[in-house]
Specification:
Elements: H1 2-10, E1 15-21, H2 25-33, E2 37-44, E3 47-55
Antiparallel strand pairs: 1-3, 2-3
């Protein structure tokens, strides 16, 4: 995760966003434990994703 944060900052991004399958509660809890905040839901056909983001 440190590498991803560094890359986003170096690219001048304001947020790092991580998406995961919405039905993965342990992964969602992991993102939240790192400081990511729930942003929104997203669908691609029948795939349902939860979107998280962290301000940089």
């Amino acid at each position: 995760m440190g590498w991803a944060l560094e890359q986003a900052r170096a690219a001048g991004k304001r947020y790092l966003r991580m998406d995961c399958a919405a039905e993965r509660p342990k992964l969602r809890a992991f993102y939240e434990s790192l400081g990511f905040e729930y942003h929104s839901d997203w669908w691609l056909g029948s795939f349902h994703a939860a979107r998280y983001q962290m301000p940089l």
